[in-house]
Amino acid sequence: MSERPIFRFAPSPNGYLHLGHAYSALLNAKMARASGGRLLLRVEDIDIARCRPEHERAIYDDLAWLGVEWEQPVRRQSEHFADYAQALGVLRERGLIYPCFCTRGDISRAIAGRTDWPRDPDGSPLYPGTCRHLDAAERSARLAAGKRVAWRLDTAKAVDLVGGLSWSEFETGNFGRELAAEPGAWGDVVLARRDVGTSYHISVVVDDAKQGVTDIVRGKDLFASTGMHRLLQVLLRLHAPRYHHHDLIIDANGHKLSKSRGSPTLRDLRASGMTSDDIRRAVGL
Ligand code: GLU
C-alpha cells in the first residue's frame, strides 16, 4: 500500500450533486492536499434501477468545474459485483449471514401494533428476526425454489464473535480520538439485497479496502454506518481506515440538503451565475 494517505469521494449517481456534495468533495481534496495524500473517486451505482448515466456524467463535470482533481481510474461499483459476492461468500461460510424470505409486508405484519418497536439509526424498524429462526431443512427447501432472496447479517452472532469495536475519528490537524462502534444498532441488516445481490454496507467496505483507502471523510449522516463498517472490516479481515465525519450543510429551514427536498443542485447554482469560487465561499472552503 502507498505511504501517502488515500482519500476518496464516493457519490451515488441517483441525482445531481448539491452543495452538500460540493462541501464533502472539496473537504476531501483539501485534506488530501494538506497531508500530501491522494484523492480517488468512486461512483456508487449498485442501485442500477435508480442510477442514471447523465447523473454520472454530471458528477465528473461538476467536480471538474469545482476544481476538484481525482486520480484515474474511477471505480464504478456496478463493475465489481463479483467482489461483493466474494465477500458475502466469506461471511456465508462463517455462518454469519442467512437468507431472508420476508417481504416488506411480512415484516410490517410481524411488528404490527408495536409502536415501541426499536428502529435503526436511519429510522427503519429493526428486522424482527423471522428468518434467523428457520431450521436448516426449511431454509434449504426455500432456497431450492430458486427465487432471489436477501441475505442478512446475524449481527448479534457477529458482535459476539469480534467483541468490542472502535474506530479512530480524526479532526483537521491530525488530532484523533477512539470512538466506540455500535453495529448492534442496525440489527440484522440486509447485506445482499434481493434485487442487486449486494448493499451499501458491504460494497463500501470492500471498495475502501480494494482502493487502499486510509482516510474516509464523509458526512455525519453516515456516522452510525461506520459502526457497521468496522464490524464488517473485522469479519472480512480488512484494514481499518481512519474516519472524519464532517458537519452537514443545512438549508435555511435547518434541513439537510437532499434531492427529495428539492435542494438546488450545483448545476442550478451554476446556471444562476454562481462561480466555483462562490461555491467554495458558500461552504466555507
Ligand atoms: N455513496 C454515499 C452517498 O452518496 C456515500 C458513501 C460513503 O461516503 O461511504 O451518500
In words, what does this structure look like?
The protein starts with 5 loop residues before the first strand and ends with a helix. The strands form four sheets. It has a three-stranded parallel beta sheet with strand order 1-2-3. The model has no long low-confidence stretch (mean pLDDT 95). The chain has helices at residues 19-34, 53-66, 81-93, 104-110, 136-144, 155-162, 200-210, 223-235, 266-271, 276-283; strands at 6-9, 38-43, 75-76, 97-100, 150-153, 166-170, 176-180, 190-192, 215-219, 242-246. The longest helix has 16 residues, at 19-34. Strand 2 (38-43), helix 2 and strand 3 form a beta-alpha-beta unit. By secondary structure, it is of the alpha/beta class. It contains ten helices and ten strands. Helix 1 crosses helix 10 (276-283) and helix 7 (200-210) crosses helix 8. The chain folds into two domains: 1-79 and 249-285, Rossmann fold; 81-211, Alpha-Beta Complex (Glutamyl-tRNA Synthetase, domain 3). Helices cover 37% and strands 15% of the residues. The chain binds glutamic acid.
